[in-house]
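ok trying this again, last paste got cut off
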Amino acid sequence: MAFGAEELRVLRRALALALHPRPVSAQDVQDCHRLAESLDEAMREGARLRAFLVADLARYRAALPGTAAGYLALLEEVLAVGHRPEPDDLAALRALRGNPVAAALLERCQVLAEQDVRARLARRTAAPAFAAAPLVPQSRTRLLALPGGRAGSGVAEAPERKPGEKPAERPADKPAAPKPGPSEPVRRPVPTPGEVFPRRKPQPPAGPPQQMAAG
């Protein structure tokens, strides 16, 4: 993919804006959009060209060995546009290894095939290792290095329990009586009506008045 002089100027301005954001004019925005559309069209055209060449290569490969010269030239062109050699290409090159051009292409294709195999194996081994990584719940993580964590709280960890052993019973925690805070006033008990107005003890009834005897 080659850029013209005008496209290179637009690309340079776009890179400068990406590194140092600043207000841009409407013309710069339109130029960047046109450059992006040109790149998309070039990528689509490259994909169509590669598909055409791969299909043509398959026709030449099917007609081997009579089309060896055309097949080898077409294979070099397809590799240049990003095609990766297929198993049929490796088998055909092994059959044509007496040709110096075929032998050189065979070495090149074998290197590319080994790179593809290693990349696929790396992706397959990386995915299960990531999936099998143990996930520790956030509530069970040990915060020993942070201030105020479990190391500084003074709470003893429970000992590990052996298989089949019943967990030890925890003593019932007695609720502590709430203490009044320093700023809270001490509440006094409210007196009952009996304490405010004590009942008077009933006096014994007075006896009948005594009449003094005359004389």
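PB: full thing came through this time. The helical segments are 5-19, 26-62, 68-80, 87-95, 100-131, 150-153, 193-196.
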